[in-house]
Amino acid sequence: MYQDPLIIYFVLGAMTVIVAGLAMGAIRQPMITGYIIAGFALGPGGSGLIQDQDMIGQLGAIGVVLLLFFIGMEVSPRQIRQSWRVALIGTLLQIALSMALVGVLGWAFDWPLARTILIGLVVSLSCTAIVVDHLKRRGEMNSRVARDTVMILIAQDILVIPMLILLALLGGSGVNETTIILQLTGGTLMAALLIWILRQDGIELPWIQRIADNPEMQVFLALLLCFGLAFVTGLFQLSTALGAFVAGIIVGQARSVDWVRSHLDSLRVVFVAIFFASIGMLIDVQYLKNYWWEVGILVAVVLLTNTFINAGILRFLGQSWPESLYAGALLAHIGEFSFVLAAVGYHAGIVGEAAYQITMAVIALSLALGPGWVLLVEKCLPADWRHTTGMAS
Prior knowledge:
The chain is mostly helical. The chain is built from 17 helices and no strands. It has helices spanning 5-26, 31-42, 53-74, 77-108, 113-124, 128-137, 144-170, 177-198, 215-235, 240-253, 259-281, 285-290, 292-316, 321-330, 337-347, 353-380, 385-389. The termini are far apart. The model has no long low-confidence stretch (mean pLDDT 81).
C-alpha cells in the first residue's frame, strides 16, 4: 500500500515532539528546545528516519514568515516611536562590537578577512522566536525590556538585507545592478508604508465587515495579508519575513481583526516547530565528535559575549543593570537568519565544509542552550529586581 512520506513525517514528528515536550516541561525548558532535539532525533544525525532536509527547510521557512507576521501584530506605532533610538543605535553598536570581537579572534587564528566578516555577522544576530516566546510565557510583552529587545530584533532582521549583499561581494559573485535597483525600490516603498502607518491612528481594511460571520473567508484573508506582502517583498529581492512583519503591523493597527490571532495561531505553532526541527536536523554528530572542544568553546564565548555586549549597550541607553543583563541574556542566542547567512557564505566559498558544519553546530547549540542560559542569568540577579524596575506582572 502506498504511503505519502509527508504523512509519515508528520506522524513521527508529532510523536517525537510530544515526548520531547514532556521532557522539556519536566526540566522547565521551553518547547523550542524540544523542537530542536526532536529534529536532531529524527534527522540524519540521529535515527535518520527523515532524510529530506530540503523539504523540511522549505516548510520551516513558512514558519519564519508566520512568526514575523505575529511579531508585527504585537508592535504598535507608539512602541516604534519610543524605541527607535534603542533599535537604531543599539543594533548598530551591537553589530559593530560583535564584529570587532570576532575580528580579534580572526587575527589570532589567522582567518581570512571574508571568513572573519561572515562569522561576525552570524553571531551578531539574535533569535526572535525564542525571545518573543520567553516574554509571552512570562507575561512581559508590555515591559520596557520587551519593547527594546523586540525593536532590536526587528532592526537586526532588516539589516540582514545589506548583510547578504556584502557576503555576495565577498564571495566574488558580485551583485547584479538590477537586484540593487529592486532592493532600493522595495526598501523605499516599505519605508514609506511604515511611515504612513506611524502617522495613522487606525487602519480600516476593506471587506472586513462583509466576512465578519464567515470564519473560512477570515482565514484566507489573513493568509493573503501575511503571504501577499511577503510575496511582494520577495519580488523586490528583499526578505519575505520583512513583508510579513509589515503586514503584521498593518493588521495590528486595523480595527476588528482579533480573529487573525485565533485563526492563524495554530498554523504558526506547527510551522515554527518545523523550522526549529529543521535546525536540529542540521547538527552533524561526526563533526561534533571531531571538533567538540572548538564547538563548546565557541558556544560559551557566543553566549557570554553577546550577553555582556548587549547588556552594556542597553545600560548605556538608559536601562538599569538588572534589566540590561536580563535583556542581554535574551539576546545571547544566535538568530534564525544566521543560518541563512552561513549557507550563503558556504555556497559563496567564504568557508569550507568543516568551518560551515562547525558554524551550524554552534548556532544550533546556542539556540538549544540559550533558554537555560537566560534562567541562569536571572538567578544571578537580585531577588527583587522585577519589582524595583517595574517588571513584575
